Amino acid sequence: MIDLRSDTVTKPTQDMREAAYHAEVGDDVYEEDPTVNKLEELAAEKLGKEAALFVTSGTQGNQIAVLTHCKPADEVIMESNAHIFVYEGAAMSALAGIQPKTIEGHRGAMDPKRVEAAIRPDDIHFPETGLICLENTHNKAGGTVVPLDNMKAIKNVADQYNIPVHLDGARIFNAAVAMGEPVHKIAEQVDTVQFCLSKGLGAPVGSILAGPKEFIKKARKWRKRLGGGLRQSGIIAAPGIVALTQMVERLQEDHGNAKRLSEGLGNIQGIEIESDVETNMVLVNVEGLGLTSEQFIEKLEEVGVRTGSYGTHSVRLVTNFDVTKEDIETVITKVNDLFE
Ligand code: TLP
Questions:
Q1: Is domain 250-339 in CATH 3.90.1150.10, yes or no?
Q2: 47, 202, 269, 285: which one has the fewest Cβ atoms less than 10 Å from its Cβ?
Q3: 7 alpha carbon to ligand 1 midpoint, in Å?
Q4: What is the pLDDT of residues 151-198, one digit of tens each?
């Protein structure tokens, strides 16, 4: 099977397994796990933030951010296809008592003027705007890179109204590699950032939430409330250190593979590329083949290729560490053979 459903499906490398095996551990609820502490320090340093917190998943990191920044009945502004709105089970409403306010973006980027217009004036009828959430790369738009200028302009608006900005940077390293910028250049446009160790970076578990020291202190308490205070978690943090030190530069390979895949699939009659490839995702529309996404996925599964549905006729293919250049050629040939 060539698995292109997501970059979450990768298996830990040998170095990650060895790092886990040899990890020095302690009780992290007492903040005494040296490996977790090392990972948090390394992550904070890379992002240019004061402090960081190791959390179980991207969803947990995002939701702890919302819980820490906001109070019940606040409103949070986000892009209408943001992961935090579409794919987190309405957690911010269920857990934090938040009302989401969505704005349609262009390739994942919201217009700063529309963001400003969405901020609630001080009026007894309205909720208070508690947070603005950005996402980079933007998953549902097709792994698109949200430009730094756009992030900067939104942060300027937010500062005028004293509203914090959180970045769902699940794939911030893909964005940084695609931009050719160090990751802190992206992180410095926002107050807090969540990024995933377990996606393109290949670690088996975990995400990081980073921001100011005082914020992370409160976030640590929210993590404990949510049952995310782990004990000898150095075992799972150690592969995260390998992810940050060994797996960033190679993301370029995934991006190259995604570009090649999109060229190859785009040449097949009936398949339309929905979004120009910028990082490690390819979105294809298969309506021209007279198939729904589910039917297309089934046909590919029969020839050993796994993909995921992104709408009635939309299919997502995500390149990742476990998929080689040769695999990409195999996928193109197989899809070509199926539909030519
Ligand atoms: N994304 C997953 C699915 O949930 C769709 C994927 O396969 O792409 N933010 C962004 C932008 C994400 O893409 C994801 C996961 C998360 C947050 C949540 O991370 P986890 O799965 O660790 O909770």
A1: yes
A2: 269
A3: 9
A4: 999 999 999 999 999 999 999 999 999 999 999 999 999 999 999 999
Q: Write down the pTM of the prediction.
A: 0.98
Question: From ligand 1's centre to the CA of 219, what distance in Å?
Answer: 20
User: Which residue's CA is the nearest one to ligand 1's atom 4?
Assistant: 87
Cite the beta strand spans of 20-68 per DSSP E. Answer: 51-55
- Length of the chain in terms of residues written: 340
* Residue in 279, 275, 277 with CA at minimum distance from that of residue 253: 279
- For the chain, domain boundaries: 7-246, 250-339
Gyration radius (Cα) of the chain, Å: 20
| 58-69 and 213-225 helices, crossing angle to 10° | 110
Sheet with strand 165-168: strands edge to edge: 51-55, 207-211, 192-196, 165-168, 128-135, 74-79, 99-103
Query: With 0-12 CB in 10 A as exposed, 13-18 as middle and 19+ as buried, what is 249?
Result: exposed
Topology annotation, domain 7-246: Aspartate Aminotransferase; domain 2 (3.40.640)
Q: State the distance from the centre of ligand 1 to the C-alpha of 10, rounded, in angstroms.
A: 14
